Structures are given as C-alpha cells and as structure tokens.
Automatic annotation (TrEMBL):
Cofactor(s) the protein needs: L-ascorbate
Lineage: superkingdom: Eukaryota
Organism in which the protein naturally occurs: Solanum lycopersicum (Tomato)
PANTHER family xref list: 2-OXOGLUTARATE AND IRON-DEPENDENT OXYGENASE DOMAIN-CONTAINING PROTEIN 2 (PTHR24014)
InterPro entries assigned: Oxoglu/Fe-dep_dioxygenase_dom (IPR005123), Pro_4_hyd_alph (IPR006620)
Protein's name in the database: Fe2OG dioxygenase domain-containing protein
Amino acid sequence: MEEYNEGSSEEATLRPEPCLEHKAENYDDLEEELEFDPLLYTSLERYLPDNFINLSRLDKVPYLNQILLDYSPPSQRNHRHKHREYRQKIMSNYQPLHKVLYTMHPTNFFVPSFLKAISENTEQSFRSIMSEPSPGILTFQMLQPRFCDMMLEEVENFEKWIRETKFRIMRPNTMNKYGAVLDDFGLQTMLQEFMEDFIRPISTVLFTEVGGSTLDSHHGFVVEYGTDRDVDLGFHVDDAEVTLNVCLGKQFDGGELFFRGVRCEKHVNTETQPEEIFDYSHVGGNAILHCGRHRHGARATTSGRRTNLLIWCRRVQA
C-alpha cells in the first residue's frame, strides 16, 4: 500500500467537477478506518485528481480522510463521530422486516413505464411519462404498490422497535416531529443507488440549472402526517439541489402540497407571482420532482394518515 504523506508533493488539487465516468467504489466495509460516513468517500472519490483516482481503496482512504478532516470544523467532526456511533447502535440491534428493500431490485421497485424511460435515457423518454403542471415541477408514476406497502411496513416495524426499546431517534429534519431517517437503519446504500441510477439521469437532463448531473449524495427519509402525527408543514425550501417526493399511500384526506416559485436564499420570503401558484394532490406511488429551492409547504391532513418517501439529492461541495 502506498503511503500518503500530508503536505507531500504528490498532493494535488481536487477536480472542480466530478469525473462522472469514474465508477466510485463502496466503502461500507471499511467503516472502522473511516473518519466520516462511507457515502461521503464514495461521493468525494469522483473529485480526486488523476494521480489518486485509480489507486486502490486502501490507498485512497488516508487521502480522503485528510481532505474531509481539513474541511470539517471540530464541532462537525464530533457530530459526525456521534452520528456514526448512533447509526451503528441502531443497525446492530434492529432486525429488518423486509430484507429485500435493502438491496436495489428495479423491476420490483419501479413501474415498467418508468424503467423504460430510464433505460432509453433521453429527454423525450422522460417527458413521455411525465406531466409538468407548473414550470420546474414534474409528476409521474414511479413506485410499485408492493414496494410502497413494504416500505410502510418496514417503517412501522422500525417504530415498533423504537417503542419497545425506548430508543431515542433523530427525526428527519427540524420541521417534522414524526417520521424516520431511512439511512439510519440500513437503507442508505440502496437509496444512494436509487438516487444515482434513477433520479440523477432525469436531473441531468431536466435540472441542469442546479447541476443535476453532479448529484452524488442524498438524505433519505419518510414523513408521516395525520391527526395523531404532524398535521401540516410550513412554507420552506429544502436543503437539496433536487427533491424527490413520493406518496407511499394509506387512506387520507387533505395534505396537498402548495408551491410558490423558486427563490435564492436571500429572497425566500418575497412575494409570490400569480403564475407561481400551484397545488398538488398526492396519489400513492406517484412522484413529484422539483428543485430544492422551489418554495413549498403541505396543507393539513384532515383525516387518515399520509406517509411520504423523500430523497433530498445533493452535491458534495468539494
């Protein structure tokens, strides 16, 4: 194994853009040697310069560790260390209900029309299965009913484990008091493949303005709405370049999403123009895809329970 010497002449500047032709490796089995989440290493690998990108994983790890340590403040390093321990504690104790969910099975997860469009991988094929009811908002049928049912059952099983063990979990974000981070109990690798192989191709063509081709990491979670859960969701933007939101179903009334136009960080609360107003009603298995800075919220779910799968698709800022 080649030795990495901090500050050596071999050290090179990272690429300004990821090398998308490079097949980045999986680092899950090297977690004991990593300072951060394994997916960060997979994402960052594509930014490595030519003299590092084709080295073995073990040769790349010290270099990647040093980059991540250099760019992370001490408070963030401590947070990541605690989060890694938290995730390891869950995964060493939680017993999955549907193990088939933890590995990508495209024909079992996605409807045929969606898979055909992804296979053809053209703007025409994508738009043939989609509607664009408002600029920048794409809707389409995506998930098989059986996948939706299994994901709902898996989340319910996880929540049952939480209640029985009295384990305190981290919720998906600061706005939702209910729901779960799917990445925290073993679904991270499957969702990364979901993002890379089934969301990024669409984003490459239809979300070029936010760097759709450079999406390389994600935050995957479910949210739950109902009279005994979160009822609604306030006006906000997502911490993502592109957001996928799919209704997993159950019987419910209300819960419409309302969209109010794209804004930069400094103008999130500026006035909405009439042409920016759009409301969307959820349908089980159907997806809505939009850029993360498209302002939106969710109206009250007035009866029943609504559960949605969300994948915030991001680009690692190398």
